[in-house]
Amino acid sequence: MVLLAAAVCTKAGKAIVSRQFVEMTRTRIEGLLAAFPKLMNTGKQHTFVETESVRYVYQPLEKLYMVLITTKNSNILEDLETLRLFSRVIPEYCRVLEESEISEHCFDLIFAFDEIVALGYRENVNLAQIRTFTEMDSHEEKVFRAVRETQEREAKAEMRRKAKELQQARRDAERSGKKSPGFGGFGSSGMSSNNSATIITDALIEPEKPKVTAAPARPSGPSKALKLGARGKEVDDFVDKLKSEGENIILPSSGKRASEASKALPPPVNVERLLAMITMRPGVEPGMITLRVSDEKNGRIRVHINNNDKKGIQLQTHPNVDKKLFTADSVIGLKNTDKSFPLNNDVGVLKWRLQSTDESLIPLTINCWPSESSTGCDVNIEYELQEEGLELNDVIIAIPIPSGVGAPVIGDLDGEYRHDSRRNILEWSLPVIDVKNKTGSLEFSVAGQPSDFFPVNVSFVSKSSYCDMQITKVSQVDGDSPVRYSLETSLVVDKYEIL
Known about the structure:
Layout: E1 3-10, E2 15-20, H1 26-39, E3 48-50, E4 54-61, E5 64-71, H2 76-93, H3 99-104, H4 106-116, E6 117-118, E7 121-122, H5 127-135, H6 139-175, E8 192-193, E9 197-205, H7 233-244, H8 258-262, E10 287-293, E11 301-307, E12 314-317, H9 323-329, E13 331-332, E14 347-353, E15 364-373, E16 376-385, E17 392-400, E18 409-413, E19 416-420, E20 425-433, E21 439-446, E22 456-462, E23 469-476, E24 485-493, E25 497-498
Parallel strand pairs: 9-24
Antiparallel strand pairs: 1-2, 1-5, 3-4, 4-5, 6-7, 8-24, 10-14, 11-13, 11-23, 12-14, 15-16, 16-21, 17-20, 17-22, 18-21, 19-20, 22-24, 22-25
Helix pairs in contact: 2-4, 4-5
């Protein structure tokens, strides 16, 4: 038997992956595969077809074909057995038998094909041996992984201990009236209710993309942690320590400091500081009161607001609103009292913004703790509601999953989950988060690296107002008689991403 080539092609004869086992030009193999569909007789279901020079042995793979091109004097029984082995190899590397998936794993398939056939002749191997050969399993690697696992378990225990210490320090600082460094602020909202005037307030929580820091892959004790922003001797000592542990450190050209070289290193994993890096983007307007007048008789009105905010929000009125009246009495009214608010048109009359470095102001904190294991990664994600007066609905925490690794194995779970294999996302769903359900966690295991599980995206809605600002009444400019109104309150997340 002489096997000339093995290929995966479309029904039109287009080659997706082709491995030649004898010397053949690209034009020659493309010509043979292009002629293959024309030789097939649709009336009969054969598994091979011959020409004057070669024989095609094939097997359908949904919309594709697995084709072996052999010489005419080869043993057809051996050809069919080899074909079956080739067909069983493909699903080992490809989740779906589609052209895009075959192209993505083309090199894996070629390496596997080379284990089946060498120089045109079939090797005496089975599927398990092919898998072992391509994985290149070794005892030394297992020993290395076992040592690394032990170090990671120790690092994980140390991280948990440090996290508890930081949380206790934060609570102590809050009790003593000090603010801990950390998070950006959040806006809030409110909305109104009646037939003639509608007042709407919206709030957007839009944290800046956080910067992620990470713990050293091989920590050697609590007293030797990496200090972010270190300069000079501290950085040099850290680089020397990595070298002594067997890490390959590439230093820049002579004349540059070792601290510059450290910038090229992967960021260390320090998940304890993950949330502390979320900040508000300057200029974001998270909160707004929008007024809509639906009856022209009620165009000349004033909106009375009770502002009990204690978070330090920054307020800004519309240019046509009487700022002195609002500052003195918390009443929204036009500067020119003879004019009316626009009819059937949404007008933003008051907006606010909150920027802060106080991490206690963030309503919902998310902690993600990925740690490598012998089978991939163990991921622990937990949430905590810090603003107990809020009720968050339809909360979805979306965690990316590496492609091609299958479904994650779920451990402890609060709420529900859904694995979207098309988008490679694990969605953790919680219908309600409130004071009765303020904490929860999700644990799962899947193949991958710690960096594969970021960014984590969070979304939710709420009918509660984050900032304590309420509309008490709406009255006429003349006579101060009350006006019926409707009120709606909406708190939404525009973007909440943890990198």
